[in-house]
Amino acid sequence: MMTKEHEIKIGILFSLTGTTGITERGQYQACLLAIKQINEKGGIDGRRLLSVVEDIASDPYLTAQKAEKLILADKVVALVGLYTSACRKMIISTLEKYDTLLFYPTQYEGEEQHRNIFYCCPVPNQQLLHFIPWIIENLGKSFYLIGSDYIYPRQTNQLIRFLVESHQGSIVGENYSSLGNQKFYQYLKDIERVNPDVIFSTLVGDSAVSFYKQFHQYGINKPIASSITAETEISTLRNFYTKGYYSSFPYFSTIQSRVNQSFVNQYQQTYGTDRISSAMENAYNSIYLLTHALERVKKLDTDSLRKALSGLSFEAPKGKIVVDTETQHLHLHSRIGKVNENGQFDILWESGTTIAPSPFFKKLLDSDKDKQNVLGTGKLEEKLAQYEVLLDEIKRSVHFLPYLSVFIDMDGNVLDTYNHGIELPPITWTQIQPGSHIKAYSNLDETGLKLAWERKVLSSVQDTMHTISQLQTWHSIGIPISSRSGTFNGVIGFFIQSDEISTFSFITNSLARIVEYAVDTVEQKHQQVSLHTILQDVSAMMSDCLYVIKDKRIVFTNVRGQQLFKQKKDFVENIMEDIFNRFPQEIPSVLRKKANHDLVEIKIVTSEPYYYVFIKEIGSSLNKSQPVKDKRKIVTKDLVGSNENFLKAVSLAKSAAQTTANVLLLGESGTGKELFARAIHNESNRCDKPFVAINCAAIPKDLINAELFGYAEGAFTGARRGGNQGKFEAANGGTLFLDEIGDMPLELQASLLRVLQEKEVTRIGGHTPIPIDVRIIAATNKNLNQEIAFKGSFRSDLYFRLNVFTIELVPLRERLDDISALVEYFIDDLVATTGRPKKELSREAFDILIKHNWYGNIRELSNVIERAFYISDNSAVITKEHLPRYIFQPLGVMDMELDFSNHSINNVQDIKQQNHDLNKKLIIKVLLKTNGNISKTAKYLGISRPTLYRKLKEYEIEL
Ligand SMILES: Nc1ncnc2c1ncn2[C@@H]1O[C@H](COP(=O)(O)OP(=O)(O)OP(=O)(O)O)[C@@H](O)[C@H]1O
Questions:
Q1: Which end of the chain is more exposed for a tag (fewer CB within 10 A), N or C?
Q2: What is the C-alpha separation between 636 and 631, in angstroms, rounded?
C-alpha cells in the first residue's frame, strides 16, 4: 500500500461548474490524464502524484479560499489551474503568503510577471503579432471587436486596436457583454449597422457558444476570428454554426506530430473525444513541467522548483516548449487555423520557430518607434550612466586586447562601441552608432553579438561562417551580461580579426570569463554600497549616536552621530581619543562623561576588529528631539516603526513608489493610509507634481461626481462662472488619493473606471474631454472582496484596476512593539512645534499603553500623547495620571453599564455582538461627554470624522 510519503500532492483548481466551466472542465481532464500517465510510468522516483481537486465555480472569491485550503490543509506541492485573470489575480497574495507556485494554463492578456506563477500559456504577442496582419491581408481591414466584459478581452482589444491601426486597418465597433450573457440581438444589430469586414471575438464560455449560434441565425455573412475560441467551444455547436471561423493558438489538435498524435489518442481513449483545445494542452503541459522540475531537483520546496523550471524545455504535443529564464512564460510556436466541417482546425499558417514571450508586449510596441533608431542624447546618457560602472570594469579588463567591441543593453540599444586604438578596417558595421538599435543593422544578423542578444546565451560565429563577406575575415563573439541571479542586462560583442588568433574557442572562453569576472566585481561593489545604505537606514532609527571604529579609525557613523559631531566636534573627538588611548586592552564597556553640563553615557561593544561606540545623553540638551518632518513632505523612511509586518508594508510602498502602478492601501481607520499614500507620492517621480486627497465617504453622494470630475459653466444652477476643475484635473501629472474608496457609489465607480481606462475626464455638463495623467492611490478599511462577492457593492473590474499594488497596513494592536518609537516620535513632534522641553514616558504609563486595545489606532495614540504632553505641564515625565482614564480603567468603572455576566458567549457571533455593543456604548458615552461635538468625539476616540459618521450610521446612533 502507498503511504503518504509516497505521494506528491498537486492542487488542481478549475471551474467545474460556473459560466466558464465549459472550457475549464477540459483543462481539468487534461491535467488528470497527465497525472495518470506519469503514475503509470512509475511516478517521480517511485512517488505517485496525487491530484487534490477543487471546483471554483468561476468565482474569484471562492478561488482564494480554495487555494488557501489546498496549500494549508492539503499541503499540495503546487497549484495548477485557473482560467480568468480575475481568479489568478485574486490568489496572488495567497501565493506570496505561502510562497507557493501556480502553473497557469490559460492564454491571458499579459502585463504580468510574478515570481510565484509559471505562465504555461501564450501571451498576446505569440497569438496576435502574426494573426492580425494575416487577417488584414486575407479577410479585410475593418474590424468589429466583441468580447466578454473582463480583463482579458478588454486588454487584448487594446493590443488588437494597436496592431490593426499600425497595419492600416480600422476598428469600426467595439462592444462588451457581461460574463455569461447569452442574448446578443442588440450586438448583432450593431454589427449589421457598421458592416465590418471581420468580427473579432474574445467572448468566452457559454457566451461564445450563444453568440456563434445567434450570429449564424441572424444571417450575417462575415468571417469571425478569435484568439480564444477553440475546439472545446466549437465542439458544443453544430458545425454549420462555426465552419470557416479562424483562430490563432500555439496548439490545434490537428497538429501532425508523433507526440501530439499519441496525446490525442490517449485523450480519446480516456475521455471519448479528440476535441482538445490549446488551453487543455497547456494544462496537460503544466503537469509535465512541474513533473520535469521535480525530477530535476528531487526536492519539493518552491525555491528549488523555481530554479529547476528556469530554462527547462521539453517536447510537448505542440512542439518544443522552453521556459523563459526571465519572465517565467514559455517560448511557443504560433499557428493560425480555420474550422473545417468536422469542427476541427485546418492549420493555415505556422511560425517555423518558437516565438519568445513578451508579456509586456504593449509597452514594447509603444516604444518600438524609439527603438528603430535613436535613443535621444539625454536618454543615451541616462542609460550609459546606468551601466557606467559595469562598462568601465569591462573596458578595464579587456583594454589590452586588440579587438573591436560593441555593448548593447537588454533592449538592444547600442550604448557604446570602442576599438582600443587599433586600425579600423573599412567594414560596414563599424558605422554602428551609439544610441541606435541593433535591429537597425541587418548586416549583423548572423553575428555572435546579435545571436547572443536574441538567445541570451554565449554565441560565437567563426570567420567564414558569417553571411556577409566583409565579416568573413573576422570572428564575432557575443557574451550575455547576466547577474548572478540570472537577470539579463545586455550583451558585449567582440569582433576579432581571424588571423590574430589561432585558438578560437580558447579566446571565446577567456573573454566570457573576463566579462563574468567584471560583472561579479560590479555586483560586489553594488552589494557593499547597498549594505552601507541598509546600515545607514537601520541605524538612523536608533536614538543613540553610533560610531563604528576599526584600526583606531571611525569607519561608520549614523545620522545622530553625524549631527552630534557637527554640534560638538571637540567633545566627540575627546571621547574617541580617550578610547583610542586605552586600545585595545583597557577598552571599558561603559563610560560616563560630562559635556559642559550634560552627562553622557558611553557604551562600547567589542566585536573584533570592530568597536561599536554608542553615546547617549542622560537629561541633556544633546538628546533634544529630532526635527520632525512636515507630513506633506514625508517619504517612506520617515514612517515610524520597526515591526516586521509594518516594515514589509513600508518596503512594498518603496517598491510602489518606483512604479506608476495604481496602489490600493488596506487598513483600519488611523493606521496611516494617508501617510503611506503621501510617502509613495513624495518618493515617486511625480513628487514635484500635486498630491490631491479626497475622502469619498465624507462628501455627499451627489456631489462626488462634481468634486472628482469638475463641472462646466452652467452645468447646474449655481455652478460657478467658468466652471470648476475637479480633483482629477487638480491632480494632473501627480497623484490622486481616493480615501474610503469602498464607500464610493456604484454609478460613480463606473465613471471612475472609464476615466482610468480612457485617461481623460469630461467635466459635468461639458463636452470636451481633458487628457489626464494621474496615478491613483486608493484606500479603504473595507474588505473589498466581500463587497464584490456578497454585496455587489464594489465593481470587480475597478478593484482589479486599482489593486495592482496592494499594501495592507497593520493595526496598532498587532504592532505593539512600535508603541515606544511612535510615542517618542509624537513627543518629538510636540517638542518641535511647541518649543517645550522633551519629556519621557514612565514605565507604568508605557505598560498601560501596551495593554490598551487601540480602537482608533495610531491617531488615537497620537491624541493620547498630545493630551498627556499638555496635561503633564512642567513635569519631564509623562505618568499614568496624565493618561485619559478610559485607557487604563475598565469600562464598567466609567459607568458604561457593560455587564458581561448577563451575556453568555457561545460563539464568534456572540463575541462580535458584544464588541458591537461595547463600541456603540463607548461612542455614546464620549458623545455625551462632549455634548455631541463630532470633532471632539472623533478626536477623543482617535478616529477621523468621516469614520465617526460611518460608525454612527452603522450603530444607528442618531444625534
Ligand atoms: N508610521 C507612522 N509613523 C508616524 N505617524 C503615523 C504613522 N502612521 C500613522 N501615523 C499618524 O497617525 C495618524 C493617522 O494617520 P492617517 O491619517 O494616515 O491614517 P488613515 O489610515 O488614513 O486614517 P483614516 O482611515 O481614518 O483616514 C496621523 O496623525 C499620522 O501622522
A1: N
A2: 11
